[in-house]
Design goal:
Shape of chain A: elongated
Radius of gyration of chain A: 18 Å
Radius of gyration of chain B: 19 Å
Number of domains of chain B: 1
Structural class of chain B: mainly alpha
Number of strands of chain B: 0
Largest interface: A-B, 23 and 25 residues
Mean pLDDT of chain B: 77
Low-confidence stretches of chain A: none
Largest sheet of chain A: none
Helix content of chain B: over 70%
Strand content of chain B: under 5%
Oligomer: heterodimer
Strand content of chain A: under 5%
Mean pLDDT of chain A: 87
Number of strands of chain A: 0
Order of helices and strands of chain B: HHHHH
Number of helices of chain B: 5
Chain lengths: ~110, ~140
């Protein structure tokens, strides 16, 4: 049976499959991180709006940024998952979210 | 106005501490796990980390200097306020000294003697001094 793509070598373990997939499609990492970010961010503000009527955008942005930072750091342990510039962008996103959070609120609310 | 200034300074301090914490955690994670992609390989991140640390040190020196200058300032007689801040001059520093001694026992037990975490307590102490100074000014002279 002919495939449109090269089948990954599944005898070397599941991480080899992942690395080969990421190698074939380099945008996989940022898309996964974007997916997690917006799932947490939009899911959080939607649920909070339903429960309380208002949403705390900067706080959910920080939580979503920290979520993708954890994933990005785990990706950074092995080669082939994430590039250095994407890691830097994730850390920068964390910093920007924190700036948004801390300048958005009064200190008594933090 | 003093409360606005305290709020704004708190926000800035929190941002700086967050930046140091995030970058420090990322660098530490990479070192601990022998990561292939190290955030310390990026010169901008190391530069940012060093600069924010320097800014914190400057803030510490400036806030303590401001606090001492407020303590040594005087007010003209007849204004209905205390002439100097001498009644406040002794207490805060002694209280801070006692608090630091108490804090350092659990601090060393939990974090060890590494200097990496020390910047948080140093900044917190400087921030307390800054707030003390502004509140003393507000108490004696009204809003700055």
């Amino acid at each position: 049976m002919a495939y449109l793509y090269d089948l990954p070598n599944s005898t070397a373990g599941i991480d080899a499959i992942a690395i080969q997939t990421f190698d074939s499609f380099p945008w996989m990492t940022p898309l996964i991180l974007l997916f997690v970010y917006f799932t947490v961010f939009l899911g959080g503000i939607t649920r909070q709006k339903i429960r309380t009527g208002t949403a705390d955008y900067p706080t959910w942005s920080v939580i979503a940024s920290l979520s993708i930072l954890v994933i990005a750091l785990l990706f950074s342990v092995s080669s082939g998952f994430i590039r250095l510039d994407w890691l830097i962008i994730v850390v920068s996103l964390n910093i920007l979210s924190a700036v948004w959070l801390f300048l958005d609120k009064r200190s008594s609310e933090i | 106005m003093a409360s606005t200034q305290i709020t704004f300074t708190t926000s800035l301090i929190m941002i700086v501490l967050f930046v140091i914490a995030i970058i420090g955690f990322s660098i530490g994670f990479a070192d601990d796990n022998d990561a292939i992609m190290k955030i310390s390989d990026d010169p901008n991140m190391s530069y940012l980390s060093t600069n924010t640390g320097d800014s914190l040190s400057t803030f510490k020196d400036d806030s303590v200097g401001t606090y001492e200058s407020i303590l040594s300032s005087t007010i003209e007689p007849g204004s209905g306020a205390a002439q100097s801040t001498a009644p406040f001059a002794v207490t805060p520093f002694n209280v801070i000294g006692v608090a630091k001694n108490i804090i350092f026992l659990p601090y060393y037990s939990i974090f060890g003697s590494s200097e990496g975490f020390g910047i948080f307590f140093t900044t917190f102490g400087a921030f307390l001094a800054f707030i003390f100074g502004l509140l003393l000014y507000k108490t004696l002279r009204g809003n700055p």
